[in-house]
C-alpha cells in the first residue's frame, strides 16, 4: 500500500488500524535517522509514512491513495498528480486567484479511530519538497494546523510548520491569540527536507536539510490539529504560469 511502516520496524501487534498506523517500538538507536540528536521519552509511536507510486488506472493521485489515509484539495486549475517515482506534483495557476493544490489529513468517519495529531503527544512531520520558483503570487504551507482550508494559516489559528508567504520562507507557529515567525533561507528549484517538531508546550522546532532553522518559543499551538501540504494563489496576476511544488517522502509521528 501507499503507507508502510519504516524499514526494519515492526508493529507490536498483528492488528494495524485502517489509517496504516500502529503502535510500534523503535529498534534500538534507529530514532537517529529521523530525529537527529533528539530522543523520545518513550519509544512507542504512532506513524504514517507516504511513499508515492504511479498507478495503472489513473493519473490522478486520488485514485492511487486509499481514501482513509488522505484527501486531495484542488480549486481553479490546481491539480495533484504523480510526478515520477517517489514524488508527486502540486500545481497551481499563478495567474488565477484562488488556485489551490493540497494533500491533507482526512477526517475520521463514523466514529472511527481518530486521525488528528495531538500537541501534547509532540507530533513530528518530515517532508521532502522543492518549489520550482519562489514566486510572490504563491503561498505554501507544510505542517500541522487546526482548520484545513484553501489559504495558508494566519494569526488566530493553531498551527506549526514551514511557510512561503510570497516574500520569505518562514518557520511559523500560532495559537488563538497570535503568530510567531522567523525567516529561513530556502533556495528554489532544489530539493529540501523540512522537519517540524512540537517539542513541548513551550517550543516548536523547524529543521531544514538537517540543520535547526528556528526554535520558536511563543504562541505555541494547543489541542489537536491536522496535517497539510498546501500551495495556493491568493491573488493571481500576470502571464499564464504554473506554480510547481514537488513533494517526496512524507512522514508524521507522535508518541502514544
Question: Any key phrases for this structure?
Answer:
256 residues, mainly beta, eight-stranded antiparallel β-sheet, 1 helix, globular
Concise structural overview:
The chain is mainly beta. The strands form 2 sheets. Strands 1, 2, 4, 5, 8, 13, 14, 15 and 17 form a 9-stranded antiparallel sheet that branches.
Please, could you describe this protein's structure?
It is a single chain. The two termini are 23 Å apart. The strands form two sheets. Strands 1, 2, 4, 5, 8, 13, 14, 15 and 17 form a nine-stranded antiparallel beta sheet that branches. Strands 3, 6, 7, 9, 10, 11, 12 and 16 form an eight-stranded antiparallel beta sheet that branches. The chain is built from one helix and 17 strands. The protein is globular. The chain is mainly beta.
Amino acid at each position: 500500500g501507499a503507507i508502510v511502516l519504516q524499514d526494519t520496524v515492526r508493529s507490536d501487534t498483528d492488528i494495524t488500524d485502517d489509517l496504516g498506523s500502529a503502535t510500534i517500538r523503535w529498534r534500538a538507536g534507529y530514532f537517529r535517522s529521523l530525529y537527529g540528536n533528539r530522543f523520545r521519552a518513550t519509544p512507542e509511536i504512532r506513524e504514517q509514512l507516504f511513499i508515492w507510486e504511479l498507478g495503472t488506472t489513473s493519473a490522478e493521485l486520488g485514485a492511487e491513495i486509499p481514501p482513509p489515509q488522505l484527501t486531495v484539495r484542488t480549486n481553479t486549475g490546481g491539480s495533484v498528480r504523480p510526478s515520477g517515482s517517489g514524488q508527486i506534483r502540486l500545481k497551481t495557476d499563478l495567474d488565477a486567484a484562488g488556485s489551490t493544490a493540497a494533500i491533507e489529513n482526512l477526517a475520521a468517519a463514523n466514529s472511527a479511530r481518530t486521525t488528528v495529531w495531538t500537541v501534547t503527544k509532540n507530533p513530528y512531520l518530515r517532508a521532502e519538497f522543492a518549489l520550482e520558483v519562489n514566486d510572490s503570487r504563491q503561498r505554501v504551507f507544510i505542517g500541522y494546523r487546526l482548520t484545513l482550508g484553501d489559504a495558508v494559516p494566519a494569526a488566530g489559528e493553531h498551527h506549526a510548520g514551514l511557510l512561503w508567504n510570497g516574500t520569505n520562507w518562514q518557520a511559523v507557529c500560532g495559537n488563538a491569540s497570535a503568530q510567531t515567525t522567523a525567516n529561513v533561507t530556502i533556495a528554489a528549484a532544489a530539493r529540501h527536507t523540512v522537519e517540524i517538531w512540537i517539542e513541548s508546550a513551550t517550543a516548536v522546532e523547524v529543521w531544514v536539510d538537517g540543520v535547526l532553522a528556528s526554535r520558536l518559543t511563543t504562541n505555541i499551538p494547543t489541542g489537536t490539529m491536522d496535517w497539510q501540504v498546501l500551495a495556493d494563489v491568493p491573488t493571481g496576476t500576470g502571464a499564464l504560469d504554473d506554480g510547481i511544488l514537488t513533494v517526496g517522502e512524507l512522514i508524521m509521528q507522535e508518541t502514544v
